[in-house]
Amino acid sequence: MLRGCLEPTDRATGRLILLSLAAQFGNVGDIAKGSAHRQVLHGATGTLLARFGDDATYWTCVEDFEGDCTPDDFYVNEWYGLTDLARDFGLVVASEDEVGVFWFGADD
Q1: Largest CB tally within 10 Å, which of 39, 58, 59, 81?
Q2: How far apart are CA 108 and CA 88, in angstroms?
Q3: What are the residues whose beta carbons fall under 8 Å from the beta carbon of 24, sequence distance 6 or more?
Q4: Buried b (16+ CB within 10 A) or exposed e, 53-89
Q5: What pLDDT is recorded for position 6?
Q6: What is the CA radius of gyration of the chain?
C-alpha cells in the first residue's frame, strides 16, 4: 500500500525531519540556539535513531525541503500526504529487528 508513497532518505535528513515535527512543522532554526529545549531535542533524536543501528534504512514522504540540511535552516516545503489532513508527513526507520514510524498529521 505504501509502495510509491515513501522515498528513501538518509539518517541525517531523517533526524532533521524528526526535529521539524518537534518544531510543529516549522523551521528547525526557530528553536532558540543554545536553549535547553533545543539541546534536549537534538539529543533525543540522536538517541532515538541510534537504537536502529548503522544499517537502518530511512523513508519519508517529504518531497522537498529548503536549506542545506542543517538544523539551522531545514524547512519542509512539500510532502506527499497519506491522508486528507492538511499537514501529514513523517519518517519510517527500519532495521533488521524493528520498524519505527514517526508521524504527525494536523488539520490547519
Answers
A1: 58
A2: 11
A3: none
A4: eeebebbbbbeebebeeebeebbbeebeebeeeebbb
A5: 87
A6: 13
C-alpha cell at position 3:
509502495
pLDDT (tens place) for every residue of the chain, 108 residues total: 455 678 899 998 898 888 888 776 566 777 766 678 778 888 889 999 999 999 999 998 887 665 566 666 676 766 777 777 767 788 999 999 999 998 877 676
Residues 6+ apart with CB under 8 A from 77: 63, 64, 65, 66
What angle in degrees, to the nearest 10, is found between the helix axes of 36-50 and 11-22? 140
